[in-house]
Amino acid sequence: MVNLICFSRIICAPLLTPGLLVIFCFSFSLLVAKVLNSLIILALCLRAENLILASDPDREGEAIAWHIIEMLKQQDALHQDIIVARVVFHEITESSIKSALQAPRKIDVNLVHAYLARRALDYLIGFNISPLLWRKLPGCQSAGRVQSAALSLICDREMEIDDFKPQEYWTIEAELSRKESGYAVNANLTHVDSRKLNQLSISSHTEAKDIQKKIESINFQVVDIKKSKVRKNAPTPYITSTLQQDAANKLHFSSTYTMKLAQKLYEGIQLTDGKATGLITYHRTDGLHVSDEAVQAIRTMVIERYGLDFASSGVRKFFKKVKNAQEAHEAIRPTNIRVLPSMMVEVLDEDSLKLYTLIWSRTVACQMEPATNEQIVVEIGDASKSLVFRSACSRVNFLGYQAVYEDVEAGAVRSKENEAYDRQKSFEVLKSLKLGEPLNLGEAELKQHFTQPPSRYSEGTLVKKLEELGIGRPSTYASTLKVLQVTAQMVPFRLKLISTVSFRL
């Protein structure tokens, strides 16, 4: 048996003279590219008994398989005795590949047509709009199906910001305490004259002062106590878009830089024992599934490292949540979950280690129990509840999946120790209050605010928006953002994206 990797499409529509007819349908004239690979495939097929096409199970992968068959037909390389089989698998494990080989199928023409339609749109937009932009906007180098949509989102947001008019509003915060205790409870005003306040209810300093006078004349007591437990589920494993979003939000990496580091982790590094290994699975994916073997390894390690209570009660399986997702590959995960981030300190550079730690943590967390928080909400007001303040606090009852983040990101946890202590103290004070218990007003503070315009897109939030709208593919997000910056259609400013003035049309 001979295994051959074709690397990418070996047939494509010509770039210089697009065979694109815009009448009632699109038609392509196909050119054979990748000449060396094509010759090798031809030579092997002439003496082969079986041809197994195992490209990705998405539309691009289906198109590659179809392209190979079409090329071989054109060259009369498919002799009568050869058996052609199309097999697909979603994870690179022995059991998955064996199952795929036992269930061959024909080419899915619907996926091929979807690929051709997508290519048609690429050519239609690129070849028709780009020349127009060259004439009307000197310096604009290109347009594209994904690129132009992304730029439109950024420009629309800039116009929203330009048109935004801030509105003034006020909030009132009070300190209330027991007579015998000096520890104060901070509470925010939520009801006036038995009416619930919204953000803009108190619109001027005069209104705020009038309410303050009412507050100072009231005898306060605890009028309501609500206790509840809140479960926070473990996150899903990473796909391309969520990895880019988290890397942007937590590590301040650009999408392009994130994918560059992920590529390095995927291709493999030289370990201290001299062996080369890939550290993560394929990083251009919209699939949330994780192989059964990997799930078992993760759960075993969770039990060993954190205890049986921290492993999820059953195997957690994740399903498609992304619009138009094709799920051709597994989620992004370490190839070996037992390769801990601490083992890579001497092997990886600082940024690569940060990204690997992010992926490792998320992968372990996805098979752990939810975190459980105990929440308490206390309402303080007059006996008739016409004027009410609210104070709320929560504390962790069970860490659940959050234990992995305390384990790996110890530095971040240490920096929050004082904050956690203050929250615990506030929770204990609120929990000790009794219904009807009188409280003393310490100080009522008036705070002026102004509504804020919508936030500019960061690379992470733009990728998330494109994903929600079903625009682009995991492999295109980073390159799209790079093209927009290289062609000066947008510029990064303080980790946010701003469209240049000439492109706001």
Break the fold down into its secondary structure elements and pairings.
Layout: E1 11-12, E2 31-32, H1 35-45, E3 50-53, H2 59-74, E4 83-86, H3 94-101, H4 109-136, H5 147-163, E5 168-177, E6 184-192, E7 195-196, H6 205-216, E8 220-232, H7 240-251, H8 255-267, E9 269-270, E10 276-277, H9 292-306, H10 350-365, E11 371-381, E12 387-398, H11 402-408, H12 410-414, H13 417-432, E13 438-450, H14 459-468, H15 477-486, E14 490-493, E15 496-499
Parallel strand pairs: 3-4
Antiparallel strand pairs: 1-2, 5-6, 5-13, 6-7, 6-12, 8-11, 8-13, 9-10, 11-12, 14-15
Helix pairs in contact: 2-4, 7-10, 7-14, 8-10, 8-15, 10-11
Domain Topo IA-type catalytic: 108-505
Protein name: DNA topoisomerase
GO molecular function: DNA binding; DNA topoisomerase type I (single strand cut, ATP-independent) activity
Describe this structure in words.
39% of the residues lie in helices and 19% in strands. A six-stranded antiparallel beta barrel has the order 5-6-12-11-8-13. It has a two-stranded antiparallel sheet with strand order 1-2. The chain has helices at residues 35-45, 59-74, 94-101, 109-136, 147-163, 205-216, 240-251, 255-267, 292-306, 350-365, 402-408, 410-414, 417-432, 459-468, 477-486; strands spanning 11-12, 31-32, 50-53, 83-86, 168-177, 184-192, 195-196, 220-232, 269-270, 276-277, 371-381, 387-398, 438-450, 490-493, 496-499. Residues 7-36 and 409-418 have low confidence and may be disordered. The protein has four domains: 11-109, Rossmann fold (3-Layer(aba) Sandwich); 115-164 and 455-503, Topoisomerase I, domain 2, CATH 1.10.460.10; 177-233 and 371-450, Topoisomerase I, domain 3, CATH 2.70.20; 240-365, Topoisomerase I, domain 4. The chain is an alpha+beta fold. Belongs to the type IA topoisomerase family.
